[in-house]
Specification:
Layout: H1 5-13, H2 18-51, H3 62-81, H4 87-100
């Protein structure tokens, strides 16, 4: 009988105690809240760019638009990774109680 090493590895890395499971869930919640905030900030950047009239030094092109979108996404991620604008922290505080009160077996 062959044993798939991925199943053994994934089983050994999974949290075993209820406290470890709760800590892992809280960590995932924080990451998800920060990712949501970064998406929201990116949408704000896109809306602000649409409000600025076209023109300037560089001509409009697909390459420029792609680069600008990648730049905005990275700036949004960096904004949300720190203290951000507070939306991620507010969401985390609101939903963390549900994880804290969850029964782990």
């Amino acid at each position: 009988m062959k044993i798939d090493p991925r199943t053994v590895l994934s089983h050994s890395l999974s949290p075993s105690t209820p406290q470890e499971k709760k800590a892992k869930d809280l960590e995932r919640l924080r990451e998800t809240c920060q990712e949501f905030e970064s998406i929201l900030v990116m949408e704000m950047y896109k809306s602000m760019r649409k409000a600025v009239p076209e023109g300037g030094l560089f001509e409009k092109s697909i390459a420029k638009d792609t680069y600008q979108e990648m730049f905005d996404m990275e700036v949004a991620r960096q904004t949300a990774s720190g203290s951000g604008i507070g939306i991620a922290e507010a969401m985390y505080r609101q939903m963390a109680d549900q994880i804290e009160n969850k029964k782990y077996e």
